[in-house]
Predict the 3D structure of the following.
Amino acid sequence: VAILPPGVSAPDFAKALLEFEAAVGKEWVITSPEEIHPYRDYFSILKDQDDELVPSAAVCPASVEQVQAVVRTANRFKIPLYAISTGKNFAYGGPAPNLRGSVTVDLKRMNRILEVDESRHCAMVEPGVSYMDFYRHIEERGLKVMIDTADVGWGGLMGNALDRGLGYTLGPYRDHMAAHYGMEVVLPDGELMRTGMGALPGSKAWQDYRYAFGPDPSGLFAQGNFGIVVKMGFRLMPLPEHWRTGLITVPRRRDFIPLVATVNYLSDLFVIGEPIYSSPLDRLLTDATFRKAALDFNEAEMDRIAGANNLHSWQVELQFYGSEKSTLANWEWAKELILRKVAGANCFDGDSLKMPVTQAQIEDVQHPYPAPYRSIMRRNVMHGVPKLYMWRSPGRTDADPETWNETHIGLFSVVARSGEAVFQAQKDFAAVVRKSRPGAEYVAALTAPLQWHQFGFFIGNSFFGTATRNDSSPEGKVRQLKELREVLKMNAAAGYGDYRAPPILQDDVAEQYSFNNHALRRFNEALKDAIDPNGILSPGRGGIWPKAHRSRRGGIRK
Amino acid sequence: MITRRQLMGSAMALPGIALSQRMAIAAPSPGAPKARVHKVLIDERFALSRPIAQTLFTPAAIYLPLPRDLLGFWHQHLAPVRTGTTSAVSGVTTERGFFLLQTLAADHRLRMQRVWSQTAGDTSHLDTSLVAWVMGP
């Protein structure tokens, strides 16, 4: 054993490891540094440093009873645990714990698909089921359902949902936590609880009604540390007959406001899947006059130069699921709406594919729109087909698309879903860059929102991703960490909070949500202390520290 | 599992490869079985991938080009290694490809039995060096 759990003596830890071995089998308690390696965050900003967030050991239970036994042992010895499902959440910390020296509870062996119902469109899975496992299951059986997969197909349905991961299809499905219906949870004392209709013995409707009766605590288990979820139900999208896309472009910068309003209308009527916004004007950034106009948010000048180059200012790619006829009718309706609202808008027909799509159709990179407009949609995720294509991204630059980067962190601020709010956020984030990096040049005026969540926009402050990626020295990484922390503070001061963070920044993001002297965090920690008095489950996750470890809040490289 | 840092230990020049592409060789895991390589994954985007592979692995092996989707390669060629239906598989890939396959292997308690990593010329952050590996039970 290379390190010990905090506050646990070597003899006690040795006894606990023996108990873990008795519970799960000797070969499933991992302590050698060589085998612990996969439980680190491969992209950690503190990689190989003395305070890197690494576990002391890993335990791999194969059943609910074994999870319960592990939790009871941890309570006896006050050993912090950190549960993972597949542990592939890179950019958000991967399998690494919030507290160095925790024992990782690796649930990958619990990988049964317990039920898939293609008439009720729901499923129940164990924690270790990955998107690719699930896809193969439904494909091999020809089941008429599809999944909303995360970008990286080796992630797990449960882990992604519990980290509030998001996807790409219709709104109710691409919010993976919202698509969950019912959980079975090992509580911090080892007790087993079911949420929703699962709390009713004999109920056949566990995945049909989420709330059952009384308060529904299931939200506590997402980005939280109140239990280890060992079963989880999901609603599934029925496999549509057809998938269709279309591109809308609007000429002027301010046209973005009615464009967003129109897309919101279609989105909230559940007519479209995730819309993909971008600006075709990025190709003008090499023009010094345009670049200056964009840096100054000089909208009239930006419009003038865009017009002179025969370019529209914004584009949105829409996708429709349904029958061939209904998707065509909905696309025709979308065109009619936008042409009614925005003078000079253009609409281009995109793909029209029978579902399920073939592998060849996924691999075939389509260019359905006339130049200079292009699709930036990742087709496989829109079709519910898990891949590892996303691994082309980390460290990518235009100049060197194959760059491998040693750090990888995802940070996205929540922004209100309107064109006006996006314009304001662009200015606010540009101001943050100016304060943080005096003299730096950051063109924020072309930043488009992501609508991963049905009802909100996310915007990443991509400046801090690109400007620091080339310094992989330990000192450079720590400088990057400090800078990111300052950025999070400045974002919060301007009214922006992040939706997700790796463990190393979770305290900082939790700090953003400070209304009424952190009433939310105080409520969560009061609950935590009540149900986990020894503070053994994932201390620090979601910024929630149990009393036993509360002094560690914000303790990493402060 | 062997970390990349550990790979940079003792260096061994490989015949036929210039000094600037010298590889470092890592010791195999103690007790690792000598699996017979019958498939070799090569990344044809890099001119050195095939020559390095031919230096390290038997020419009688089946050489397979790196597909865009590593998941498909995993299911078709590497996952069977854990079920014992095929022997060890090797490859010469980028660090990224190596990371992906190493991570998938760890999920199934497969091991990277031998790993070689390109060292010279690998001084910048733009890591396009190649990693050669043998994966087996």
